[in-house]
């Protein structure tokens, strides 16, 4: 089966692009921040600088690790689900579930090794740029030498490999639990309910977000920037919880928006509603980066805005620790925003490209290219609205908690501006990726698309 996995990779290289990019970018992020640990172990590094490097690596790198694992798992799950017909055919000709699992895990392992190794040059550049920023902001002494060493490489290669193969095992297990005939049916439909394990995991993340928010408002009240240690993680945990509930959230939103969409969009609106209902699991994969992007970005920026306002109102200059914390927050936002944006585009491109045959069938049934694009636009509208809505809800776990603990107010003054800015960026990314890909996809003649 490993030989079959290699042949599958050669013949279907384009289909593994989304998985490759997720692992490539994830490995680059992990190695860039892990290189700060290599640097902290260098000779002559002052203790204060060592503490800054370790803190930056652990806090930002830890969040990066969690988001990377989540993103890789989602991308691999989407990839396996899109191959439902192929896996069902393998079962029908005698392949055992164990053989199919070995094939899927073997493919993921090869992609993980290649992607992680290819990310080393980018990680070196990113890590050096991050270190230079710390030097330029006077948080690291100029005589400290940057090091990209064994810690960065081992963490980048090891963690991404383990994450990719573990995610592949979970996705393969789900794909091989049913018999061949049932698998053929599942290849064209989606399960109506999420698993109990997924729901339980989502509830755990949401509960942790609530716990940190409450802890911030109570135990951390009056403790200045120390409250960021609890408030800063609340929005991320809540965003992951909402993202795990993605299929259910999409179904709930479409149940509310179905009538307006069908009235305003006509036939295109009706088709968009049906597609969202049938493809809620696939749509949830694209929903994940929108929720993470809006939730963590809005929450962290509002938290930093509150801190800046409190400092300005007190009429005092920022201390070195406050500058370090502000830099840390901005780096977190930059990392998450970049990774989530790329993952959003990556996921939407992969999901939309996979619908080439569906678009061809619609056009053969009489739909015009404009109508097909209108369907995709309506789907993107619902997807963006859902992601922004629950991303904003996740951000409240941090913004309200920190504002209450630090400034005795519920929301920061600049909260609306930050929200609108993040929403605008999410809209641009979603529509550019989905409409742009759909436009390129329907250039293929309909008969060729169906026959492919």
From TrEMBL:
Segments crossing the lipid bilayer: 12-33, 53-73, 109-131, 151-172, 199-220, 240-261, 282-301, 330-351, 372-402, 414-435
InterPro entries assigned: ABC3_permease_C, Macrolide_Exporter_MacB
Keyword Membrane part of the UniProt annotation: yes
UniProt keyword annotations, A-Z: Cell membrane, Membrane, Transmembrane, Transmembrane helix
Pfam families given in the database record: FtsX (PF02687)
Cellular compartment(s): Cell membrane
Membrane topology (UniProt): Multi-pass membrane protein
Ranges of residues in domain ABC3 transporter permease C-terminal: 61-177, 331-444
Location, primary (coarse class): membrane
Family, as annotated: Belongs to the ABC-4 integral membrane protein family.
PANTHER family: ABC TRANSPORTER PERMEASE YTRF (PTHR30572:SF4), MEMBRANE COMPONENT OF TRANSPORTER-RELATED (PTHR30572)
Descriptive protein name: ABC transporter permease
